[in-house]
Amino acid sequence: MITESLKNPLSLFDVRGKSALITGASGAFGRATALTLGSLGVNLTLASGSKAELDAVADECKSVGAKVELVYLRPDKLEDAEAMLAAALKAYGRLDMLVVASGFNKAGFIHEMKYEDWQSVMDANVRGEWLMAKAVGTYWIKEKIRGKMLMMSSVRGRHGNISGYTAYCASKGATDSLTRVLATEWAKHGITVNSIAPTVFRSKLTAWMYGDDELGQATKARSLSRIPLGRLGEAEDLMGMALYLLSPASDFCTGQVMYVDGGFTAG
Ligand SMILES: NC(=O)c1ccc[n+]([C@@H]2O[C@H](COP(=O)([O-])OP(=O)(O)OC[C@H]3O[C@@H](n4cnc5c(N)ncnc54)[C@H](OP(=O)(O)O)[C@@H]3O)[C@@H](O)[C@H]2O)c1
Questions:
Q1: Are 153 and 172 in contact (CB under 8 A)?
Q2: pLDDT tens readout for residues 10-69
Q3: Buried b vs exposed e over 123-161: b needs ≥16 C-beta within 10 Å?
Q4: If you measure from the C-alpha of residue 25 to the centroid of ligand 1, how many angstroms do you get, rounded to a whole number?
Q5: Domains in the chain, CATH or no CATH each
Q6: Which of 62, 81, 130, 212 has a Cα at 20 to 30 A from 184?
Q7: Does residue 250 line the site of ligand 1, with CB under 6 A?
Q8: Is any ligand 1 atom within 6 A of the Cβ of residue 49?
């Protein structure tokens, strides 16, 4: 028998009318994901701590026809995560997708860096993911919604780095672990949890590698030398995987860290 999805394979990627919450929506990955989903008819709730930047992303999303709700918060506390969820529910009555695109790095060699800097990276990356998972997962389980959660890992969750990445690498290793443990914990509720692990792509986070900073230039050159496809990434390069992981096409895929890295981890 030829099933419906084989007759119309693009229906696997049909996300029209769904509702998505994106943290760090002012950033490169968050913005690209908002535009991608918004263009496909997903109702958006966008969160970030930078009002002017978030307003600009919202205007872009509206220009492609998306409905947009804004929350000027980062996921610093459980109440922040709950306020984001509440905004989505008030606007659309439902939430189907959670994308944690907020994140941060502060490079520094361990013998020189302050403990507070290490903690700030762990808080931005791991605490933010955990708080968002707790707030939204509690809602999904209570309402029996087969939600989809997407987090941002990095090739740095798997590889070390000589440029002072004890905080960032450890935080992304934690993202990989959270991806797997949430996926297994929530599988019985039909909720999927996956991560995208890119290598360097252009964003505010990596701006220091595109300027004059000596360590930044060396870090960029070393990354580039390790990428078989011969270039660094752009946020657009990640959108095919993001859409897959947020659409019905990935209903049987959970707990995975998906490398979209130009071949970095292959060799
Ligand atoms: N770019 C890369 O090469 C790369 C590679 C691998 C993985 N990633 C991961 O991809 C995700 C998205 O990063 P991006 O490259 O799109 O960076 P980005 O353009 O800097 O966006 C990240 C967003 O996170 C928010 N943010 C910054 N500091 C924060 C903090 N201390 N606490 C909470 N939120 C904070 C910012 O929003 P507000 O200031 O408006 O709150 C910012 O717009 C991150 O998890 C990053 O680690 C990036």
A1: yes
A2: 999 999 999 999 999 999 999 999 999 999 999 999 999 999 999 999 999 999 999 999
A3: bbbbbbbbbbbebbbebbbeeebebbbbbbbbbbbbeeb
A4: 9
A5: 15-259 (3.40.50.720)
A6: 81
A7: no
A8: yes
